[in-house]
Amino acid sequence: MILIILGAPGAGKGTTGDVMTKEFNLPKISTGDMLRKEVKEGTEIGKKAESIMKSGGLVSDDIINNILKNRVKQADCKKGFMLDGYPRTLNQAVELDKTMKELSLNIDLVVNLQVSDALVLKRLTSRRVCKSCGAIFNIFSQPSAKGEKICDKCGGELYQRADDNEATIKNRLTVYMRDTQPLIEFYQQKGLLSDVAAEKGIAEIIDSLKKLLKDKKLV
Ligand code: ADP
Ligand code: ZN
């Protein structure tokens, strides 16, 4: 199964993807996570991406398309995969179509997680991420059992992402509306898009998503 998870920043793409990875053993490909790793390791790509990510802008299509292309060619993607945070521009969507064609693969479904801007702001300013394993927490809705600073999955340190502050979040939303929102129509026209209400808790979102996958005969 090949799934794209679309949605504004804070819609729950990463958290939903992590649960789906566990349930269906599907690798989650998060371009955001991959970029954060490049930044942490101080690679050439990381150096180019760091300030762009801090401001809430988008890293260039060329860099991202390359990263993605190399990733989906790896062995663990043979059984299918989920894309979280890619594509994010029309150019990336067109490039993804080309990559899929080259590899004789098809996108099965594009899930559009729907949330309001107000909720996005609340969710993102209260998000915490594990430095070691990447697990995603929320100090209100999904706190770690070990408190605000320690990951209850691996004991790693929890931190607040550099782009999870109010000013950057507002810019990320503007960029989302301008560059990513057009993908909804792009995939609607291909008959691949399904909306999932994502205002509720993660358990409800996962339930709706599983039901959708069953209806579509994907699981
Ligand atoms: P979110 O979806 O919560 O905004 P991500 O972790 O997916 O966050 O991405 C963080 C940042 O990484 C983005 O704001 C952007 O700068 C960069 N990025 C991630 N994916 C892409 C992409 N497909 N194209 C361009 N930039 C990207
Ligand atoms: Zn951890």
Topology:
Blueprint: E1 2-7, H1 13-24, E2 28-30, H2 31-41, H3 44-55, H4 61-72, E3 81-84, H5 90-102, E4 109-114, H6 117-125, E5 127-130, E6 136-138, E7 158-159, H7 166-180, H8 182-189, E8 193-197, H9 202-215
Parallel strand pairs: 1-3, 1-4, 2-3, 4-8
Antiparallel strand pairs: 5-6, 5-7
The site of zinc ion has 8 residues, from loops.
Largest sheet: 5 strands, parallel
Indicate the proportion of strand residues: 15-25%
Helix content: 40-55%
Separation of the first and last Cα atoms: 8 Å
Which tags fit this structure?
Rossmann fold; five-stranded parallel β-sheet; 8 strands; binds adenosine-5'-diphosphate; binds zinc ion
Describe the structure.
The chain has helices at 13-24, 31-41, 44-55, 61-72, 90-102, 117-125, 166-180, 182-189, 202-215, and strands at 2-7, 28-30, 81-84, 109-114, 127-130, 136-138, 158-159, 193-197. It is of the alpha/beta class. The chain has one domain: 3-Layer(aba) Sandwich (Rossmann fold). The strands form two sheets. It has a five-stranded parallel sheet with strand order 2-3-1-4-8, with helices on both faces. The chain has a three-stranded antiparallel sheet with strand order 6-5-7.
Short description:
The protein is 48% helix and 15% strand.
